[in-house]
Every structure is written in C-alpha cells, then in structure tokens.
Design brief:
Largest sheet: 6 strands, antiparallel
Distance between the termini: 50 Å
Radius of gyration: 27 Å
Oligomer: single chain
Strand order of the largest sheet: 1-2-6-4-5-3
Helix content: under 10%
Number of helices: 1
Shape: elongated
Low-confidence stretches: 1-20
Mean pLDDT: 88
Structural class: mainly beta
C-alpha cells in the first residue's frame, strides 16, 4: 500500500496565526482504472501531479477522496470514500484512487454531541460524547476504524430536554418507551384552546384538547378515526390563561396526567407501550420546557 503525506498551510483569521494541516492519503491498489460518478464534486483539468490533486481535495469543502489520471491531468474530487465493492465504480483506464486512512471526524458531526479521535496502539478510536440534555442512541459510544481505513456506522445523540421550543412542536421520544416513562411540561396557555398528542406510529395513543371554557377532551386516533372520547371540566389549563407544570406518566396500560402535582385524569391506551414514540403540541400553548425521561 503506497502512502504519501500532504502538508497544507491554512490561515486562521480567528487565531491570527498559521496552522499546518497534515492529511494522509493512501493509494488504493485494488481500485485501479476505475472512476465513480457517485458523490462527485468537481472534475479539474491541468493537474500535473497526484500531490496537487490531493491538495485540491484538502482545500475543497467536504472532499474526502479523489481519482487522478496523470496522463490526462484530470482530478476528480468526491465527498465520499469508496470500497472496491462499490457498485458505482466503472471502467476508466489510467485512473488511480486515493483516500485518507481513518479520516479525521468533525468535532460536531453528531447533533447534540461531539466526537473525539485518539489512537490506541495502532488503532484509531472515535468516541461520542453527548450534551447534558441528550442521551446516546446506538450500540456503543466507542468505534474503531477498520483495517481498510473506514469508520463504521456511529451512534448519535438525541435531546431529552428542550428549553423554550417553538410551537408547533413535534419530536420523537428518544428511547424505547416502557412502563415508567414520563414527560414533564412547563407551559402557558393562551387563545381559545390548546392541543397535545402522544403518537404511536401513524396513530395517536393520547389526543388532548383543552378549551378556555374549561372542557378537556381526551381520546385516541386510530387510522384517522377518533375513538374513546372522554370529556371533563377542569380549570387547570385556563381560567385565566396561566403557566402550568404538567406531568404525563406512561404505564403499560394507561396515561396519568397531573398538573401542579394533582392528578387530572387517567386514560387507558390501546397500543403496546413500546410503540408510543412521539410528542406533539399543535397550538394554544407557549412552551417553556419539555423533559422526557425514564
């Protein structure tokens, strides 16, 4: 396996100094006389050396690998890396392929989290760290770069707490729901009515509509049809419009909704608890905080 290094000087206006960026590309001795049109960025002509082509890749935002034809002076930049088994590869005499080995990962490539790369002996290891208001989703927070220089599929981070989210609000419950899952909501009602839904796939396990006249409806929605409608009178959300602290507890058979520590209602759900997967607010509420937990 042929290896060469490229050193590129980049000027940082923030730090007001020169920074040296070291990028290592390897020549793939299997992907020879081939190119791909997948994830293509640019095709450059008049490039006299493979090192120059590599520099163009380093300078291009998002470029991860390149094909180079020395005889023709063509340099093809791509925003992905290819394995020999890639179906998009096609015959193109004279081209060689180069890619970085275990490329550096952007620190903030994971939403609501960061990545850090270190070496453990001869193996490169990436670790995902989630923010305090997020949890890790995946099989392992640590992954190892494989022998071909590719990172395996990494996990991700998902928010469990939102501060002053906008309405309409629609977010997936970031874990598999089980008995004991709970949602805390701090909000303020306004207008004539507020609407909340807790989804289960394409259905709605709990539909809630609170009106300023003190009527609170709850139901489920299955295949677009509202079922099990129950109404009660309560001033917990209105009369007058006010801030409230609401808690929804989910058991294997029912929802229990409390406001200010006082149980307002229980409602039997008719779906498997693990299928409950989304929280939505449609209108009539200013949200200050939402927290999902188990």
């Amino acid at each position: 396996m042929t290896v060469y290094h490229l050193l590129v000087l980049a000027y940082s206006a923030i730090q007001c100094c020169n920074a040296c960026l070291k990028v290592e590309f390897i020549v793939d001795n299997v992907i020879v006389d081939k190119i791909s049109n997948s994830a293509a960025q640019w095709t450059l002509s008049g490039i006299t050396t493979d090192e120059e082509c590599g520099i163009k890749c380093v300078q291009a935002t998002g470029c991860l690998s390149f094909f180079y034809n020395e005889a023709e002076g063509n340099c093809r930049l791509h925003s992905t890396m290819f394995k020999p088994s890639e179906s998009s590869l096609e015959a193109a005499p004279g081209y060689t392929y180069r890619k970085p080995f275990c490329p550096q990962l952007a620190k903030y490539i994971i939403p609501s989290g960061t990545t850090g790369v270190s070496s453990e002996g001869s193996v490169m290891v990436a670790r995902v760290s989630c923010e305090s208001d997020a949890i890790f989703i995946g099989t392992s927070e640590t992954v190892k770069c494989d022998a071909d220089g590719f990172w395996p599929q990494m996990g991700s981070c998902a928010l469990t707490r939102w501060s002053h989210p906008t309405v309409p609000f629609s977010e997936a419950i970031p874990f598999t729901t089980k008995a004991g899952t709970a949602i805390d909501i701090i909000g303020r009602s306004f207008g004539k009515e507020l609407q909340m839904e807790i989804g289960a796939g394409s259905d709605v396990a709990l539909y809630l509509m609170a009106s300023e006249d003190g009527i609170l409806d709850r139901a489920s929605i299955v295949s677009g049809n509202k079922e099990g409608l129950i109404s009660l009178s309560t001033s917990e959300f209105y009369k007058p419009a006010k801030e409230f602290k609401c808690n929804v507890k989910i058991s294997s058979t029912e929802f229990t909704l409390s406001v200010g520590g006082k149980v307002v209602f229980t409602y039997v759900h008719v779906v498997p608890v693990e299928s409950i997967d989304k929280l939505r607010f449609m209108n009539g509420i200013e949200l200050k905080e939402i927290h999902m937990y188990q």
